Amino acid sequence: MKNSLWLLTYLWFGSSIILAQIPNDSDLMSSTESEYSTGLIELEALQKVSDTKPKQKESYEKKPSNPEIPLLYNQPIDGSYKRHIALNRKPLPYPNIREADVFWQKRIWREVDIRQKMNHTFVHPHDPFVNVLMDIAAQKVDALIFSDESFKNPIHILEVKKSLGLTDTIIVIDPKTYQEYTEIVTNEFNWQNIETFRFKEDWIFDENTSRMHVRILGIAPILNVVDDDGNNRGQRALFWAYYPSFRKYLVNVETFNRQNDGVRLTWDDILEARMFASHIVKESNIFDRRIKDYAVGKDALMESQRIHQELFEKEHNLWSY
Q1: Three-class SS of the chain
Q2: Considering the domain boundaries, does residue 160 fall inside one?
Q3: What is the mean pLDDT of residues 70-75?
Q4: How far apart are the first and last CA of the chain?
Q5: For the chain, how big is the Rg over CA atoms in Å?
Q6: Short-list 245, 257, 249, CA closest to 216
Q7: Per the CB 3.0–4.6 Å rule, which of 117, 157, 310, 321 could disulfide with 137?
Q8: Of 92, 93, 95, 91, which is closest to residue 210 (Cα–Cα)?
Q9: Can you give the pTM of this predicted structure?
Q10: Which domain holds residue 279?
Q11: 247, 261, 221: which is closest to 128 by C-alpha?
């Protein structure tokens, strides 16, 4: 009996403690309202901070999937594969020639008429040779051009364009204020006005190697001078490109190959392999005369053939059997 009383007392006291710890409905409502109000205050504070921050403009530019690969490789190419062999080529160095080994030397000026069938490569519509020279001269600082064939008077490609009348100053009237102002305009160069290229080269016989070397020194596009009435007033060299300074860039410029589109030739291949037709217009002489100064018509053609034949036979005549 005594033990049961103690058990009832213990149960009653424990249940009262549990009931005292359980909050009522009013306490729950008050705590919930306080937490809700606190959350609203924090949300308003975050919105104010976000409004004060500058909004970044969304970019819709397409980025490459792999940042290590340049965007150039993701662009479409005009072909079934990417051509890169010519871009990585280097020109073959010339054999060294000692002055003491030069047994015989002759300086020759020749002209390449691009109207001949073999020379149509020089006027390929997509990349004519005169545009190649002018682009290299404009983009490369060490590609030297001169106003004379002796390479003594250097000029800039802008001076060449100005002499062609490609840059001009015109007067423009504003349609709103009717005020006049000057504006500099640049016209596109018509490469079809160039019909001839003049080459300056040295023919050298090296007695150490017993062979003839041909070294191109300069290339000049020849422009036909025409007056306002359309009469031909002769020819003049547009500029003289110093070929040794252009050669390292010409080796990376592809040109048309008549036989195979898969194996493109470069301008270094065309010039070094002598894959063009030409005729001699001058050889070094004591009077510094051109062939046209002492021969005309058929006689000038025969004189050009005579000089060409002498160059062809010179190397063989120096051999003894």
Answers
A1: CHHHHHHHHHHHHHHHHHHHHCCCHHHHHHHHHHHHHHHHHHHHHHHHHHHHCCCCCCCCCCCCCCCCCCHHHHCCCCCCCCCCCHHHCCCCCCCCCCHHHEEEEEEEEEEEECCCHHHHHHHCCCCCHHHHHHHHHHHCCCCCEECCCCCCCECCHHHHHHHCCCEEEEEEECCCCCCEEEEEEECCCCHHHEEEEEEEEEEEEECCCCEEEEEEEEEEEEEEEECCCCCEEEEEECCEEEHHHHHHHHCCCEECCCCCCCCCEEHHHHHHCCCCCCEEEEECCCCCCCHHHCCCCHHHHHHHHHHHHHHHHHHHHCCCC
A2: yes
A3: 57
A4: 150
A5: 42
A6: 245
A7: 157
A8: 95
A9: 0.68
A10: 103-317
A11: 221
Q: Is residue 38 part of a domain?
A: no
On whether residue 184 sits in a domain, the answer given is: yes
* Angle, CA of 276, 278 and 283, to the nearest 5°: 135
- Between the alpha carbon of residue 252 and those of residues 122, 130, 132, 226, the distances in Å are 16, 16, 11, 35
Q: Which residues contact 145 (CB under 8 A, 6 or more apart)?
A: 137, 154, 155, 156, 157, 160, 239, 240, 241, 242
**Residue with structure tokens 């003289």?**
240
Percentage of the chain beyond pLDDT 90 is 42
Reply yes or no on whether the pLDDT at 146 is more than 90. Answer: yes
Q: Number of structural domains, the chain?
A: 1
Residues 246-274, mean pLDDT to the nearest whole number? 89
CA atoms of 95 and 318, how far apart (whole Å): 20
Q: Are 121 and 204 in contact (CB under 8 A)?
A: no
pLDDT at residue 36, rounded to an integer:
46
Q: Does residue 108 lie within any of the structural domains?
A: yes
User: What are the φ and ψ backbone dihedral angles of 114, each rounded to 5 degrees?
Assistant: -75, -5
Q: Are 153 and 146 in contact (CB under 8 A)?
A: yes
